[in-house]
Design brief:
The protein is α/β, with parallel strands linked by helices. The chain is built from 15 helices and 18 strands. The mean pLDDT is 96.
């Protein structure tokens, strides 16, 4: 290829864990190869700004390395951030904030490694930081949707997507009963206030997941910043008998643990008993500090000390869960209620979960909620539905109620490349039902909320297994349908790697819950968008 052809710089942000970067590197190479061909066909060269290192991968694996690489990049050059893996946004955020050329984030449409998840996290982080960027995705980088927008970006520095599925909330459209409930709950939260327990904020590089205090306090929520070392210390205070009682509760309620004997690669009872200690310790710390919701970061720091926190997280999100007494054994803590947990300390999800629990309790709807990764999606290959079906999937924090009850839950060992100390997932397939999906995010120094309706649907076992095998088979999954929102519309607008989901008793109840949450959020000062349609295809402004 002639050297006079214009070039585009490329960087690739990766994990902070060497094992993950090494395992996932071939997928990144495949993405970059296809992307290079697409650029060459449009008359451009793809120039990598950093090379493969002696560690056996070509990812930026730390903030330090990212800053070093960006020092050598022309700040006015067109730049692509290409992602086939989960990545830590702070590896590249410092460089992207000061970059003056056009920026394009690109991910491969694949569930194998969470490249789409990584890109969405980076997108949300850039939006929060006020950085102008464009974004694209593709399965093979030859489809017209991708290539036409890639050309648009190369020609103009910007590419756009249709987002007519989004409408700013008009408070006058909220049904009066829903408005009254939402406004009352907002007033109560502001008056009485609530505490959000945060275990080690930000250590996974999720800049988009940190709510600045000056935006959180006017809502009536205040952070209790806790250390994960305090959680480990509290685990040491839990007795063997207490841990064994929690495990016995799981087994008596039908959860199936798939035990082996080799710690390095299999789930062992020792690992699960450590998780039982963590569960008791987390509940006691939440009670001690008066936390209504908590978030354990886990993956950095704790991963080198204890088994995974995901079984703990899913249990906390469940209303039916092992009872925990205070250290004196006299008082049951949080009896009869869940303690909403926000996975990976995604504070935006934590605020959403707090609001959902209060609202759904007032409405008589299911209060259990969780975030999922917006992991991937595809058309149903079983012929069950012609709707586009998302794979909503998370590493284990889904509540048992979402999975059909404890007797439908499975415990598998977490993947060693992410979780060296093992630990059980809380796995299963989400039950069919009407859902409200949502995302709180930060843009223009303000809190925003996107709200939509959808369903968790049932698919045949073979189609479910196909989707699990295409992603992470040991994690809980939801077959998610988003009413009135296409794949590309969702990707174009969604400002996070996570999507929050909550069930309702039926379609009408779900619509009522959506309106009431919109009213509550608006009364708290959030900027609310209503996305898509109701189940009948009617947009929230009444259009069809």
């Amino acid at each position: 290829m002639p050297l006079h052809q214009p070039s585009v710089q490329l960087v690739a942000s990766g994990d902070s864990r060497l094992s993950a970067n090494q395992v996932c590197w071939p997928a990144q190479q495949e993405l970059e190869s296809k992307l290079q061909i697409a650029l060459e066909q449009l008359g451009y060269r793809l120039q990598r700004a950093h090379q493969v290192t002696a560690a056996g991968h070509g990812f930026l694996d730390s903030q330090k390395r990212g800053i070093e690489v960006f020092r050598e990049i022309d700040p006015h050059a067109p730049l692509i951030v290409a992602e086939a893996v989960w990545q830590y946004s702070h590896h590249v955020l410092a460089g992207l904030i000061s970059h003056r050329g056009p920026i394009l984030t690109v991910a491969n449409w694949s569930g194998q490694w969470p490249g789409l998840v990584g890109m969405l996290n980076l997108n949300g982080s850039l939006t929060k930081a006020g950085v102008t960027y464009s974004t694209l995705w593709s399965a093979d980088f030859t489809d017209e949707y991708f290539t036409s927008r890639l050309k648009q970006w190369l020609d103009t520095g910007v590419c756009v997507h249709p987002t007519e599925h989004v409408a700013a909330l008009d408070p006058q459209q909220i049904p009066s009963e829903a408005a009254a409930v939402g406004e009352k709950l907002a007033s109560q939260l502001r008056r009485d206030k609530a505490i959000m327990g945060v275990f080690d904020e930000g250590c996974m590089g999720m800049f988009n997941a940190i709510i600045p205090d000056h935006l959180l306090h006017p809502v009536g929520v205040f952070k209790e910043r806790l250390s994960q070392s305090a959680l480990v210390a509290a685990m040491g205070e839990v007795t063997d008998a207490e841990a064994e009682q929690v495990l016995a509760w799981y087994q008596a309620h039908g959860m199936q643990f798939h035990f082996g004997e080799i710690d390095a690669t299999e789930l062992t009872q020792r690992q699960v008993l450590q998780q039982c200690r963590m569960y008791v310790a987390a509940v006691r710390l939440a009670d001690h500090f008066g936390c209504e919701t908590i978030g354990i970061q886990y993956q950095q720091g704790l991963k080198d000390m204890t088994p995974a926190s995901d079984l703990v997280e899913g249990t906390l999100n469940s209303t039916s869960r092992p009872p925990v007494l205070d250290a004196s054994g006299q008082r049951e803590l949080f009896a009869g209620r869940s303690i909403p947990h926000f996975n990976e300390v995604d504070e935006c999800a934590g605020l959403d979960a707090l609001m959902i629990q209060r609202l759904h309790q007032a409405l008589g709807e299911p209060v259990e909620t969780t975030l999922h990764d917006l992991r991937w999606g595809s058309e149903d290959q079983s012929g069950t539905t012609d709707q586009y079906v998302w794979v909503f999937e998370i590493s284990g924090s889904a509540p048992a109620e979402h999975l059909g009850g404890w007797d439908q839950c499975h415990g598998y060992r977490q993947p060693p490349m992410y979780f060296p100390k093992g630990g059980s997932t809380l796995s299963g397939v989400s039950r069919p039902g009407e859902i409200v999906w949502s995302r709180i995010y930060i843009a223009d120094n303000a809190l925003h909320l996107d709200l939509g309706r959808g369903a968790s649907i049932a698919l045949p076992e073979a189609e479910t297994q196909r989707r699990l095998d295409a992603t992470t088979p040991v994690w809980p999954i939801m077959h998610g349908v988003t009413y009135g929102v296409t794949r590309d519309q969702m990707m174009a607008k969604h400002q996070a790697n996570h999507v929050q989901v909550a069930y309702a008793n039926d379609a009408a109840s779900a619509d009522q819950a959506l309106w009431a949450r919109a009213a509550m959020a608006a009364a708290l000062g959030l900027k609310v968008n209503l996305c898509g349609t109701n189940k009948e295809g009617v947009r929230w402004n009444g259009a069809t």
